[in-house]
Amino acid sequence: MYGRKEFATFRRKPDKWGDGEQEKLRQIHNDFLDLAINSGVTGLVEAIDLREYNALAGIPANKEMFGGTPYYLCYHLAMRRAISAVKELEESDPASSAIVAFVCDGHEAYSEHMKTVHEDFRRADPADSRLIGSFTYDDDKQLIALQAADALVYEVRKDLFEQMEDSAYQERPELSKLKGS
User: What is the pTM of this model?
Assistant: First the structure.
Protein backbone atom coordinates (compact mmCIF):
# COMPACT_ATOMS: atom_id res chain seq x y z
CA MET A 1 0.00 0.00 0.00
CA TYR A 2 1.11 3.52 -0.66
CA GLY A 3 0.78 6.56 1.57
CA ARG A 4 0.80 10.30 1.00
CA LYS A 5 4.54 10.51 1.58
CA GLU A 6 5.28 8.11 -1.27
CA PHE A 7 3.01 10.01 -3.65
CA ALA A 8 4.48 13.34 -2.60
CA THR A 9 7.98 11.96 -3.25
CA PHE A 10 6.96 10.68 -6.68
CA ARG A 11 5.29 13.94 -7.63
CA ARG A 12 8.29 16.06 -6.61
CA LYS A 13 10.66 14.21 -8.95
CA PRO A 14 8.68 13.37 -12.10
CA ASP A 15 11.69 14.09 -14.34
CA LYS A 16 13.51 11.13 -12.80
CA TRP A 17 10.82 8.71 -13.99
CA GLY A 18 10.62 7.24 -17.48
CA ASP A 19 7.36 7.36 -19.44
CA GLY A 20 6.41 3.81 -18.44
CA GLU A 21 7.13 4.49 -14.78
CA GLN A 22 5.14 7.73 -14.80
CA GLU A 23 2.18 5.96 -16.41
CA LYS A 24 2.41 3.13 -13.83
CA LEU A 25 2.40 5.70 -11.01
CA ARG A 26 -0.61 7.48 -12.52
CA GLN A 27 -2.43 4.15 -12.78
CA ILE A 28 -1.61 3.22 -9.16
CA HIS A 29 -2.77 6.66 -8.03
CA ASN A 30 -6.03 6.40 -10.03
CA ASP A 31 -6.65 2.86 -8.75
CA PHE A 32 -6.13 4.09 -5.21
CA LEU A 33 -8.54 7.00 -5.70
CA ASP A 34 -11.13 4.63 -7.19
CA LEU A 35 -10.74 2.28 -4.23
CA ALA A 36 -11.02 5.16 -1.75
CA ILE A 37 -14.07 6.60 -3.51
CA ASN A 38 -15.90 3.27 -3.77
CA SER A 39 -15.09 2.04 -0.26
CA GLY A 40 -18.28 3.35 1.31
CA VAL A 41 -16.25 5.41 3.77
CA THR A 42 -17.02 9.09 3.98
CA GLY A 43 -14.43 11.69 4.80
CA LEU A 44 -14.42 15.39 5.35
CA VAL A 45 -11.75 17.99 5.71
CA GLU A 46 -11.88 21.13 7.83
CA ALA A 47 -9.44 23.95 7.25
CA ILE A 48 -9.00 27.23 9.04
CA ASP A 49 -6.84 30.21 8.21
CA LEU A 50 -4.07 30.15 10.80
CA ARG A 51 -3.66 33.92 10.58
CA GLU A 52 -7.26 34.37 11.69
CA TYR A 53 -6.96 31.63 14.30
CA ASN A 54 -3.81 33.20 15.76
CA ALA A 55 -5.43 36.64 15.86
CA LEU A 56 -8.42 35.26 17.76
CA ALA A 57 -6.40 32.87 19.91
CA GLY A 58 -4.19 35.77 21.00
CA ILE A 59 -6.95 36.53 23.49
CA PRO A 60 -6.49 34.00 26.33
CA ALA A 61 -10.22 33.33 26.81
CA ASN A 62 -10.60 32.55 23.11
CA LYS A 63 -7.58 30.26 23.03
CA GLU A 64 -9.02 28.22 25.89
CA MET A 65 -12.44 28.16 24.22
CA PHE A 66 -10.77 26.81 21.03
CA GLY A 67 -9.13 24.00 22.97
CA GLY A 68 -5.69 25.61 22.92
CA THR A 69 -4.73 24.47 19.41
CA PRO A 70 -6.02 24.86 15.86
CA TYR A 71 -6.19 21.04 15.67
CA TYR A 72 -8.69 20.90 18.50
CA LEU A 73 -10.89 23.46 16.75
CA CYS A 74 -10.70 21.69 13.37
CA TYR A 75 -11.47 18.31 14.94
CA HIS A 76 -14.43 19.83 16.77
CA LEU A 77 -15.74 21.39 13.55
CA ALA A 78 -15.31 18.07 11.74
CA MET A 79 -17.27 16.22 14.45
CA ARG A 80 -20.05 18.82 14.33
CA ARG A 81 -20.25 18.54 10.52
CA ALA A 82 -20.28 14.72 10.66
CA ILE A 83 -23.11 14.75 13.19
CA SER A 84 -25.07 17.19 11.01
CA ALA A 85 -24.73 14.74 8.11
CA VAL A 86 -26.05 11.88 10.26
CA LYS A 87 -28.98 14.04 11.37
CA GLU A 88 -29.81 14.79 7.73
CA LEU A 89 -29.71 11.06 7.02
CA GLU A 90 -32.08 10.41 9.94
CA GLU A 91 -34.51 13.02 8.57
CA SER A 92 -34.57 11.40 5.14
CA ASP A 93 -34.57 7.84 6.53
CA PRO A 94 -36.07 7.66 10.04
CA ALA A 95 -35.17 3.96 10.24
CA SER A 96 -31.48 4.83 9.91
CA SER A 97 -29.28 3.83 12.81
CA ALA A 98 -26.16 5.59 11.54
CA ILE A 99 -23.52 6.79 13.94
CA VAL A 100 -20.17 8.44 13.41
CA ALA A 101 -17.13 6.36 14.32
CA PHE A 102 -13.72 8.00 14.37
CA VAL A 103 -10.47 6.33 13.43
CA CYS A 104 -7.23 8.21 13.80
CA ASP A 105 -3.71 7.32 12.71
CA GLY A 106 -1.96 6.36 15.92
CA HIS A 107 1.38 7.50 14.54
CA GLU A 108 0.34 11.08 13.82
CA ALA A 109 1.71 13.72 16.17
CA TYR A 110 -1.68 15.37 16.70
CA SER A 111 -3.91 12.31 17.05
CA GLU A 112 -4.09 12.78 20.82
CA HIS A 113 -6.00 16.03 20.20
CA MET A 114 -8.72 14.05 18.44
CA LYS A 115 -9.14 11.75 21.43
CA THR A 116 -9.53 14.78 23.69
CA VAL A 117 -12.06 16.38 21.34
CA HIS A 118 -14.01 13.11 21.15
CA GLU A 119 -14.23 12.87 24.95
CA ASP A 120 -15.03 16.58 25.41
CA PHE A 121 -17.66 16.52 22.68
CA ARG A 122 -19.46 13.53 24.15
CA ARG A 123 -19.42 15.11 27.61
CA ALA A 124 -20.51 18.59 26.49
CA ASP A 125 -23.29 17.57 24.11
CA PRO A 126 -25.32 14.67 25.56
CA ALA A 127 -28.12 15.09 23.02
CA ASP A 128 -25.79 14.48 20.09
CA SER A 129 -23.50 12.03 21.85
CA ARG A 130 -25.89 9.21 20.84
CA LEU A 131 -24.67 9.80 17.28
CA ILE A 132 -21.00 9.60 18.22
CA GLY A 133 -19.58 6.13 18.06
CA SER A 134 -16.22 4.85 19.10
CA PHE A 135 -12.83 6.45 18.76
CA THR A 136 -9.94 4.19 17.87
CA TYR A 137 -6.38 4.38 16.64
CA ASP A 138 -5.11 2.34 13.73
CA ASP A 139 -2.17 2.22 11.34
CA ASP A 140 -2.49 3.97 7.99
CA LYS A 141 -0.25 1.30 6.47
CA GLN A 142 -2.90 -1.32 7.33
CA LEU A 143 -6.23 0.50 7.03
CA ILE A 144 -7.20 1.71 3.56
CA ALA A 145 -9.68 4.23 5.03
CA LEU A 146 -6.82 6.09 6.71
CA GLN A 147 -4.87 6.09 3.46
CA ALA A 148 -7.94 7.51 1.74
CA ALA A 149 -8.18 10.19 4.43
CA ASP A 150 -4.51 11.04 3.91
CA ALA A 151 -5.10 11.33 0.16
CA LEU A 152 -8.09 13.61 0.73
CA VAL A 153 -6.17 15.85 3.13
CA TYR A 154 -3.17 15.93 0.78
CA GLU A 155 -5.33 17.01 -2.17
CA VAL A 156 -7.28 19.63 -0.19
CA ARG A 157 -4.12 21.15 1.32
CA LYS A 158 -2.42 21.24 -2.06
CA ASP A 159 -5.50 22.89 -3.54
CA LEU A 160 -5.71 25.52 -0.78
CA PHE A 161 -2.02 26.41 -1.07
CA GLU A 162 -2.20 26.61 -4.86
CA GLN A 163 -5.27 28.88 -4.68
CA MET A 164 -3.42 31.24 -2.34
CA GLU A 165 -0.41 31.36 -4.67
CA ASP A 166 -2.14 31.52 -8.06
CA SER A 167 -5.45 33.27 -8.68
CA ALA A 168 -5.79 31.46 -12.03
CA TYR A 169 -5.37 28.06 -10.41
CA GLN A 170 -7.54 25.25 -11.76
CA GLU A 171 -8.64 22.44 -9.44
CA ARG A 172 -6.60 19.27 -9.85
CA PRO A 173 -8.46 16.32 -11.43
CA GLU A 174 -7.66 14.15 -8.39
CA LEU A 175 -9.46 16.54 -6.04
CA SER A 176 -12.40 16.88 -8.44
CA LYS A 177 -12.67 13.09 -8.49
CA LEU A 178 -12.62 12.87 -4.69
CA LYS A 179 -15.16 15.69 -4.32
CA GLY A 180 -17.48 14.15 -6.89
CA SER A 181 -17.70 10.85 -5.05
Answer: 0.62
